[in-house]
Amino acid sequence: MMAILYVDVSSGDDYLAQPAIGQYLSTYFITNPKFNDEVIFFYRPKTPIIICGVNQNVYSEVDLAYCKAHGIKIARRGAGGGAVYVDSGNLTYCFVDNDDSHHYLDFKHYAQNAIATLKDLGVDAAMTGRNDLTVDCKKFSGMSALKIGNRFSTGGTLMVDVDLDNASRALRPPKSKMASKGVKSVHSRVTNLRPYFSSHYQNMTLSQLQTKFLLKLFHTTNLNQIPTYVMTDEDWRAIEKAATKKFGDQKWIMGEQTTDMYYHSQHFAGVGTVEISFSVDSGVLTHAKVFGDFNKMNGNLHQIETQLIGTPYNTASLTEAFTQGDVAKNIGNIQPASLAEMLIDQQFADKATIN
Prior knowledge:
The protein has helices spanning 19-31, 58-61, 64-69, 107-120, 164-170, 175-181, 186-189, 206-217, 233-246, 250-254, 301-308, 315-324, 327-330, 336-344; strands spanning 4-8, 38-43, 49-52, 73-76, 84-86, 90-98, 126-128, 132-135, 138-142, 144-148, 151-159, 228-230, 262-268, 272-281, 284-292. The protein is an alpha+beta fold. It folds into two domains: 4-254, BirA Bifunctional Protein, domain 2 (2-Layer Sandwich), CATH 3.30.930; 262-348, CO dehydrogenase flavoprotein, C-terminal domain (Enolase-like, domain 1, 2-Layer Sandwich). It is globular.
């Protein structure tokens, strides 16, 4: 049975003040050959951050003016999933594992220890949907995944004392996503965990929560019995060098700001929200850009976009274009005809992308 290694990242507090470094940690543990077994680590941001999924439209998902005015930084992770607001009141846990054809994208498997730990604290936590953890029908965690070669990472957030007002004002998820959850705002959909802690744990710190999580995971009552790797200065220098090259690149973080005529979105059960910005001239698509919070992070969205450009704006032609774009491989289990309908039907028209 493969061992689990706890990686203590507390030696990198100064480095982790840079959002890019926090986003690169998973990649480091996936790609560095000295980490061969399953790894668990935690990340707690020093400042408020909006973290967008690799395929998301920052200009559509985030109120950039609000973020600038309130000192909220923007980051982009290498994994799929949706945009999240995190601050020092949030504890993120992350597993890095080898793909043995059993647990990649099996969010339930990697959420079970978080759920069990929270139940010990009096929280009736549960997994709902494809990757959400909830209590009292309110979300406190979304999970995402990143795969490189034969290793992958997956993790989620534990919102304990997060500034929910900041989160509500900074995030602007697509209306189709909110409708699929049966809510009207971010604030009504998410919650902090502390109100649900039993009286004995009401004053628990995030460090104590992390300890509880680890003791539960390793079936021990003694932290000294947990196999632990403490990050070295050499590790942090290597991470900083690699992280700033990509995760610190503002062009990569912000992505393309589209100025198309139309912006449509639809939430697909089991896959996520797909958003397409597009323009039509003389009955033909002249531009298309695909965005979304689906967890397939390495699909070739350009293949779909290329097929759409030059396609007549009618259901049959669009269905064929999405078929040729290999939607199942590049986004997920969605019928091409459903995406064609999304582009045609005005009920799926969403907000403007210009912020």
